[in-house]
Write a structure and sequence with these properties.
single chain, alpha/beta, Glycerol-3-phosphate (1)-acyltransferase, seven-stranded mixed β-sheet
């Protein structure tokens, strides 16, 4: 009797942009222009090579807002709960891939590392979830681990206005006056030269959130 071959784990699919991305980008640009749309600091995003875009998070509008404002086609790490039905299909076609929150999702981490190693922009929210109070939360360790692993620059991003729709504080559809500011890229040379221990990762996360807070306070 021959031994059974153990099952092999399926490799996670690499995220992709299909025709849905430019189509939905055009639709979303119209929606933003109707409400009022301001983009500041787009020149701070490296034109080529890996980069992590790290925005504050208030609304479900935030991922497409970054996508249509940054000048590149980012891949987006999004919560697994969104990948259901027709909405989930559309999100997947726009370069998003799921991450399970509340646990170490190795598949999502591996996908994100591959995105960066291939020279693409990666959009990840450092707080991990939408704010319910309007205040900035602490950065989770995942973003810092990815940045350290790939030694990628991080562009802090501050978003305002989107809290007025599709947010925990104000749900539902309405026009919003959205503003998005891209800060100067952070390179973390000293942190990347050290071991990725808790202290190093916290230093990366704290600096990112400090830069986002500085952009907020300058307004």
């Amino acid at each position: 009797m021959s031994a059974e071959t153990p099952p092999t784990k399926a490799k996670p699919k690499f995220p992709r942009h299909t025709w849905v991305f430019p189509f939905m980008s055009a639709v979303f640009k119209i929606y933003l222009r109707l409400g009022g749309w301001e983009v500041v600091g787009r020149e701070n995003i490296p034109a080529t090579g890996p980069v992590i875009l790290a925005p504050n998070h208030q609304s479900l509008l935030d991922p497409p807002l970054v996508g249509v404002s940054c000048g590149r086609w980012p891949f987006i790490m999004a919560k697994a709960e969104l990948f259901k039905g027709i909405i989930g299909w559309a999100i997947e076609q726009m370069g998003s891939f799921p991450v399970r929150r509340g646990a170490a999702d190795r598949a999502a981490f591996k996908t994100a590392k591959t995105v960066l190693s291939q020279g693409h922009p990666l959009l990840i929210f450092p707080e991990g979830t939408r704010t319910r109070t309007g205040e900035l939360g602490p950065a989770e360790a995942g973003l810092a681990m990815l940045a350290h692993s790939n030694q990628a620059p991080v562009v802090p991003v501050y978003i305002s206005g989107t809290e007025k729709a599709f947010s925990p504080r104000r749900g539902g559809f309405r026009l919003v006056k959205a503003r998005i500011e891209f800060g100067e890229p952070l390179y973390f040379e000293a942190e990347y030269a050290r071991k990725a221990d808790r202290e190093t990762l916290e230093a990366i996360g704290n600096r990112i959130m400090s830069e986002i807070a500085a952009m907020r306070d300058r307004r």
